[in-house]
Write a structure and sequence with these properties.
Length: about 775
Amino acid sequence: MYKKRILNFFICLLLQTLLIISPITVLANDEVTINTLDNKVNEEVVEDFLPTKVSVVFNGDEKTSKGITWHTKANCKSDIEYIKSNTVPTNFKHSLKATGISNEVSIIGGFSHKVTLSNLAPGSKYYYRVGDASKNIWSAIGSFKTETINNKALKFIFVDDSQGKNQDEYKISAKTFQKASEYFPDSDFFIHGGDLVNTSSKPEEWHWFFEEAKDFFMNNTFMSVPGNHDAQNNTYNNHFNFNYPKQNTKNGTYYSFNYGPAHFTMLNTNDIVINDDNTKSISAEQKNWMIKDIENARNNGYKWIIVTMHKGTQTASNHIDDSDVVGMRADLQPLFNELKVDIILQGHDHTYSRSKHLNGLELSNTQSQIINGYETVVDPKSQLYISINSSGNKFYKPNEDFIKQFNIQLAKYSQPYLQMFGTFEITGDQLIYNAYTYDAKNTEEVNLYDSYRIIKTNSVPNLPSIEKPTIPITNTKKELVLIGGYNTISKNIEEYLKDFNLSRIYGKNRYETASKISNSYTSSEKIILSSGEKYTDQLTSKVLAKVLESPILLTEKNKLDTEVLKEIERLNPREIIIIGGTNTISKNIETQLSKFHISRINGADRYETAKLVGDRIIEKSGNKNKAILVDGTNFPDAISMTSLASKENIPILLTSPKELNADTREALKIWKTKNIVIGGGEKSVSKTIENSLKHNVSVIRIAGEDRYETSVKVAESIYKDPNKYIFASGETFPDAIVGANYASKLEAPILLIKKDIIPTTVKNYIK
């Protein structure tokens, strides 16, 4: 017995030693590091603990403190490792460490983690990562800077109203943030004027807001005020770690911070009360705090007082006559004048405007003059109100009638229908402001839109001429989305793609992957339900999904996956279109979905089903002059051809490799097709078939040496220099098939790759 105990002791000691010395490799660009004896990654578990929605803000002394927030699906520790360094660390072996707190927040779908760093070195750069040290699961590496001692200057960027209804719209605001940071690279921080999301109770919108701009948020200090769309059930406060006074944070947060010669007062215009005279304004508690806050700043010698409020009082569109805006205009503008506020940054009205100088409600006698090329005011002792339009995709038209009716005093206002951002540079007594338009959706051009300078001195200084900034030459990163988990596209592939804004969509299986892609739809009147086991029906229905603007979900023959059912319930469609007969998707599936209207498109076999799907496409699009023909017995060429088919709304027909199928021949005859594109080489669709078709129609063939080159050739035929690419496995088809629908939604080519290798032809195309 004694010997057995001794043996057990040494076995336990050996196991503990192995756990301690188990090798851990941490590379600078690792997104996840997991410490396991067998080095196997359970992707589902990793995703539950993987940090998302990382934000960095000022919290306390701007020279020595930061507040950081992130989220996880499952409960875990709130750890951070950080290193003072001017270069990206190769590991965190000698890092400083801290642990914060976490709270479960059901409305955001997981846990909110917050940590406050203190005793940082002033004027220094730090690199950090957040996660759970006990599980060794970490975020990517981010960075932040602290303010220098005796700082007399600052630069910041102002953006506004990024709210969107779907993932694509948040890609627009993400591009705007990134472009602004590239354009003004020495910026100390960002200010956002509110309405970060459209519906704050929807966790997917917060996810899109942060994750579409993940690299930006991890490497910039982002100060914001809550908009009315951000105000549901404490959601705003659960995404930021501000140092705020005691208050009810259910509908947002008010707070302040200092930087260089400026003090920033950040108001919460959701905190509205009805006064005794039936007018509306911010609560007495917030107003009293604001008065003391700004008076203290003046007493402490801050030369510039800048207020940010979402619901602005000097704007250009329809919110001018809102009762709370009318009330705040009468209440706060005189107060701003008494407190000697310099600039008020506003949102809410989704237009561009710069006011005339005001003393409360009255027009100031401040006159501007052109000095060295800049419109300049000298020692104004008045307030300037600025709205910077939208960083997203939602624009309002200026309301001329309201501007006149409510005596709104604007020096410049307009709606360029482009994304915008503003830059501020303060050096002692001088403030330089520039506003820019950015065409995020099309040309990606940046243009100077408005310029202004304020000099706070009693006389005009002898200033040198200031050149207006020119657009810097930068290499804008293109987007690349990997469809599928690490079992189909390995982690090694990501190493080659560092120059891209890289993301990955995957679930624990093909059904969940399709559901996650479907999440990019806010709603949909129709859903296409196809087999996750027989691929041919999925391939031909891709174009129908594009024409109907509908997602494609996958199912087993007899049972719906839980995630698929959840997604159907979320979308709540008016119709579910099942592709294929009961041998492919059984009647049992219809029973499970009995509360929805169900229809089927099914033929006697895959060839007739493709024809029937084509009939629906032509009925909807009216395009019957052109068709695509692919091998109905193999899938890679059909996957590649979906890019062309979806781009031009062309039906895909199937054939056996050697002989044209009768249903396909009949479809071409009935549709009176004049142009046919064959996808793939002669082993897929024979020369005999091609020659037989040429008697009546125009035929071209798109084919490469293999499936990978074919995908490139299809892409080249329609996308000469795309901004987005989709990669999917050319060896395992389910992810590629659902990825094809996502590619068509993004108007991006889908390219096939191997698990561990990007074929040379694909590399050459994306360079």
